[in-house]
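User: New here, any thoughts?
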Amino acid sequence: MGVEKLSILPTDPNFDPLLFLTLVHRNASFEQLQHSIGRLESKTDNQVQRLQNLVRDNFALFVRCADGIDLFALDGDSKRNRGKPGVKDRLDKLDALSESCSYQAKKSFKPLLDNTNEVRKVQSALAVLQRVGPLLQVPNLMRQHIEHGRFSAAVKAYRRVLVIEADNKVELLRHVKLKAAVAAREARRDLEATLANHSVPVTNLLDAIRDLGELIELNVPPDPKKGEEKEGSPSAGVFTVGDHTINVRDHFPALSCLLLQAAYFSSFVDKSVRQADNSTQRIYNGESVSAVTEEASEKKSEGGNAGGTSGAASQESGKTGETKNSKSSRGRNSSNRWKYDILEARVVSTIRAVGVARNWLPRLLQIGVAAREAETRRAARAARRRGPSVQDDLPHTVKAYDVFVKNISPSIITIVEHATFCALGCSNSNTGEDIKMTFGTQSDQRLQALLRAPLPPAQSAKCAKELAELVEVVHEIAASAETLRLGGDGSDLGRNPISSPGASFGSPPASQYNRGPSSNPLELCVALADDAVVTVERRRCIYAFDVCARTCASRASGSGTFDGDALLSCVQKLTEELTRADDCANEVEKGCELVVRRCCEGLASYVRDRGDAARLRAVAECADALNGRIVDVVREVAYLTNGQCETVEEALAEDIMSLEASMFDEFLDNICRHVAGCTKLGSMSFDRDDDGSYGNAGGIDAPKQFPAYLSACLLAIVRCRAQVERALGDTTIRRSQGITYQYLAMATAADGVVAGICYELNERMARMTASGADRFANELQFLMNTLKKYLSDDMLSVAENCRRMLCAKAGHLQGDGPDGLAAIEELERLGRVYVLCLGE
């Protein structure tokens, strides 16, 4: 009997136990079936035992029945009963009577029996439906999952209907499988549309890639009625992004998603460039930057077709430019506001370009990693299926690394070039070459000149942060893309992977950057981004130090302050913000020198029309800078540039010490000139008498008093000390000599006083009397004793020679005259204030 004639209904004569177990109890394990058979056997044994017990309990009845049967048999065979009906005839009559009764009963109870049979059939059918109910609910369940975006659950549900074979005789099950296939095809179309959607989060894309891959592995049958597998049909997985048409069914899901998202990335890059060109042209035609920016934001929020929206915007901007040409020309002639708006638009374009790279490159990298993993799984599966010896026979497909090199790298280069041009203009690049103009080549010459010019410091600082972030993203993408270099079959793609026809959107312009054609496009992207950020950060250093120099020069010339804190703050701020500080070491060093030089020039300007107090203030500021903030600045610069600026301390100290030496030397010269006027001895009419008392030529006694010239000289020295101490303190050391400024000033004043007095005494030596010589010798000795702490050795020698000449003129040695030591003690008593101020 064929399998198709077998049945799973126990009441059917063609009931087959194996088929019953296969369809009804397919989920039961072997242990469960074995346990069930044991229970059936135990029930059969129990029935036999009950029959045996029944016979034992009613054995007498069984014996009597057997005797009766034997008796009927004997009576039927006896001769005397041959003319009468036998037992058999009577039994036949009884059978006929029972059949008649049965027929009448069936005739009377036929509806009831038919209903009973129908109920049994329905109950049996319901039992079967309950067992296959989960399979019958699969199509509806799949549609619910698809409507709510739960594609993983839909794929899991579709796996359950695959147990139904295609040649199954149960029409209901075949219909269920057909409807489930329809839902699976719908899920595949939705998943393919998800892969082609640029606004879907990357996590949802990765889930869609996984679900679509699992669905493809289940071999969903095509729908022959709609012919969705025909090439070129929109429902067959063909999507158009800009100028690129991609059939997602020509590649595995991860690679298809990477190609589609790469096409969207290229489209957004081109849109960013066109939008920058459109914005600057509209601003040049008379519109404000706020209106242009708001309109661009509205278009971005609408999320419409990029190509159509950009085209309409270009046409509208062209019409606006034509209608407002004359009006905007008058506005430009009367105001330069449009120039500032153009510069601001360049900053906005830079931020927008960096935003495109920041949002899209990590997204593409995650999809590329998923594609790389899919390639590895496909290669391993092919190796197991075909064997290691035939791996080379696998058909060549596009690799994830191919897509990064051929499709994504040109767009990365374009967006980096665009951001670089918007932020830097066309000059002063790190390589010394002009930066390529990405837009505005057909604009007016005035607009082109403004687009090519560098940005002001404020706008350049904004762009520096954005370019630094762009470089980080490009570096991460380039480093991570190297992990995709090995193909899915384990082969090395090399530095220049083989491209597949139709898989590339363009080729990287290798010759544009003076690099060989064999250069890796990703390396070109990194090099271009590095050059851009180094250039903008060098400009930022120049701008920052220029602003700091102007501020410090203004404060120095106005208030006589050397603002080392401003320079230190500037360097610390650059330390926090620069990402390529090693490449900006020269700019940092020159900038610090510029700030210090401007401060010195400002201090010189401050002192120019002022006196000694201003000079001492300038010297004090220089001393504080040398011993304080300049040391901190040098340490911060060394930390910033990683120790590359080794000569910065020497250069800064040289400028400051040059100003300090000039100011302090001028102060010392003024001291010398001032004390020179205090050393005049005055008239020689007063002289000392022979008795040792001060008197005049007529012998009239004069009151004893401290000599006026000594008082003037010592007062000048004390005044000098007070000036220096007030400005510099008594412990500030001059760096070039290692001596305090106070000591140097007082030593200079003391030497000037002694030199002036000795000169005056030598001039009057010939006209001096003996008593006068003795008096001046005592006064000179007093002066030497008071100032010996500050006098130089040469000046002490000069003073000693002068004193000896005076003693020789007086005719005695020190202490042998009429006054002797008493005169010196008297001078110390009279000038005790000066002795206390200047003595040890």
